[in-house]
Amino acid sequence: MVSKALQLFGAAAVLAGLVAAAQPGAVKPVSAPMRDLAWGKLNFLHTTDTHGWHGGHLQESQYSADWGDYVSFAHHMRRKADERGVDLLLVDTGDRVEGNGLYDASNPKGQYYYDIYRQQHVDIICTGNHELYIASTADREHEKTVPNFHETYIASNLDYISPKTGERRAMAQRYRRFKTKNQKLDIVAFGFLFDFTGNANNTVVQPVRETVREPWFQRAVRENPDVFVVIGHVGVQMPEFKVIFAAIRQENPLTPVLFFGGHVHVRDATSYDSHSFAIASGRYFETIGWMSVDGPLNSASAPTFHRRYIDNNLLGLQYHAGLSAETFPTEHGRNVTAMITKARTELSLDSSFGCAPQDYWMTRKPYPHKDSIYTLLEKDVIPSVAVNPNRKDVPRLVIVNTGAVRFDVFKGPFTIDTTYIISPFLSVFRYIPDVPYAAARKVLDLLNGAGQIMDVAGLDARYMAIPEQWAIKESIVYSKTAERDNSMQKPLAHDDDDGDSSKEPMIVQGYTTRDDIGTDGDDAIHASIDFYVVPNCIQAEANLPKDDEPETVDLVFFDFIQPWVLMALKLNGLHYASEDVQSYVDGTFTELFAGWIKGNWPKKCGHGK
Ligand SMILES: *[C@@H]1O[C@H](CO)[C@@H](O)[C@H](O)[C@H]1NC(C)=O
Ligand SMILES: *[C@@H]1O[C@H](CO)[C@@H](O)[C@H](O)[C@H]1NC(C)=O
């Protein structure tokens, strides 16, 4: 074992010498015209919703740097801060787990992740909802990440219940007061989670409105720091941050309040007043957020704020650090890259189920469309895998929420890693037998179109869709022509030779973010990518008679959307309870999809490999 590890470390180090760093096998980074970072007195690097992508995006040239590269980058940026006599702090706002094989593929989950993640020094860190869905995940967060970041982990509105004693305690300290290294700026920092209710029963999330009334919070907001830093697994447009902001402002009319948010997977920034600023830094370790504050602190004249969304692109990181491919990687960064390589190898993440014949997109193509992953699922995959052997001839409707798919499928090998990337959730098919068709047929439209009706019933229909759509403020009534042109993802790997630095860099597709501050947030200048709104749910049909309507059908759906489905049936006058819902087919959706690929896509891509 030891010798294998050393061998791997050696191989990674040699490769690192050639391509600087990133994972072996990752596509080459592509350069882009760059916008610089504006330094201030106090500067921040921010990650959020990394969801296990600490190995980087091996198939996407814009985001192929890894956690080791970020360790190197932070090292250089701290040194730059020291040279300038200013301060740099690192922030992470949760959802570090679930969504990539590096976390999900081991048993127990996260066998490698916790040690890899802790290699970065993070100054302020909090919890996301994904750390809390499953009791064992929350246990591991409490046993590993909380002690790993003992000084810096904050849980302002989160308690943990010990499985041994049953005792309920704060998950970590409620807030943190500290002085920055170089200027001795006095910081009071909080770490929040939005008013999440889907957590396992070994944690307790206190609604933010109640937390700000707690005596400890009211004391903390009277501590007169130079700056308040509020980090949270909360979208910057969500009401929770506004409640916290109002509570701080009430006692501190002029103190700068800086917010770092996440959860909704978008690049976003806003300010709540002239002395406050808020940033959200995307998702899946595509983005490293940058915020700086300069000018007077705690004065009637407002400070200046800057934000930048840094692509997790090795060439960009080297550019901002002012270093070359040779001088950029630190020994520690290379070690972390090697740790990730070793983990990926031991988890066989590159082992392939089959070869995707083309790209399938979530939102880059409309739905329905031959290039939409949802059309692929609806027409081919679901009818073939959602089959109960005892009821295979019974007419059925199968409803799947689009949020169960979390990433595009790229042409090429569909690997063990891909299965976790596409669908990190352990979604299973459940069903109600023999539902009158007249009512069953109306369920899909209620789930998709009738957001307000669901809202009245206390169920937010948006949560069935992908997080990237939660941020769209108006309740979405899905329309096949709806389209948004900003923000999103996905430049593809190109083979272009970018070695010639005398050439103008080609503009590749990527984030073109528009936020409340303007359109200059992205560090790399990209061509924009189409974004098509998708419905909350899609529906596959099987065995429906051609010319006739069936009396009844089996109504099959993912377990996650059961509350909405039962509500939609109720709105149609049919009262079903949880006891009426049964398991439909063995295995998780992820396993069923992988099985379908084995049977339907070519084993290997092209020739050779
Ligand atoms: C949580 O639920 C499980 C399973 O239903 C139960 O065994 C356990 O006692 C509960 N724990 C707490 C802290 O309520
Ligand atoms: C990097 O790894 C090598 C080999 O395991 C070890 O000797 C060295 O101390 C590590 N360096 C850092 C900075 O982590």
UniProtKB/TrEMBL annotation:
<dbReference type="InterPro" id="IPR004843">
    <property type="entry name" value="Calcineurin-like_PHP"/>
</dbReference>
<protein>
    <submittedName>
        <fullName>Metallo-dependent phosphatase-like protein</fullName>
    </submittedName>
</protein>
<keyword id="KW-0732">Signal</keyword>
<dbReference type="GO" id="GO:0005576">
    <property type="term" value="C:extracellular region"/>
</dbReference>
<feature type="domain" description="Calcineurin-like phosphoesterase">
    <location>
        <begin position="43"/>
        <end position="266"/>
    </location>
</feature>
<dbReference type="Pfam" id="PF21953">
    <property type="entry name" value="NadN_nucleosid_C"/>
</dbReference>
<feature type="domain" description="Putative 5'-nucleotidase C-terminal">
    <location>
        <begin position="359"/>
        <end position="566"/>
    </location>
</feature>
<dbReference type="GO" id="GO:0016787">
    <property type="term" value="F:hydrolase activity"/>
</dbReference>
<dbReference type="GO" id="GO:0005829">
    <property type="term" value="C:cytosol"/>
</dbReference>
<dbReference type="InterPro" id="IPR006179">
    <property type="entry name" value="5_nucleotidase/apyrase"/>
</dbReference>
<dbReference type="Pfam" id="PF00149">
    <property type="entry name" value="Metallophos"/>
</dbReference>
<feature type="signal peptide">
    <location>
        <begin position="1"/>
        <end position="21"/>
    </location>
</feature>
<dbReference type="InterPro" id="IPR029052">
    <property type="entry name" value="Metallo-depent_PP-like"/>
</dbReference>
<dbReference type="InterPro" id="IPR053828">
    <property type="entry name" value="Nucleosidase_C"/>
</dbReference>
<dbReference type="GO" id="GO:0009166">
    <property type="term" value="P:nucleotide catabolic process"/>
</dbReference>
<dbReference type="InterPro" id="IPR041823">
    <property type="entry name" value="YHR202W_N"/>
</dbReference>
<dbReference type="InterPro" id="IPR036907">
    <property type="entry name" value="5'-Nucleotdase_C_sf"/>
</dbReference>
<dbReference type="InterPro" id="IPR014485">
    <property type="entry name" value="Pesterase_C1039"/>
</dbReference>
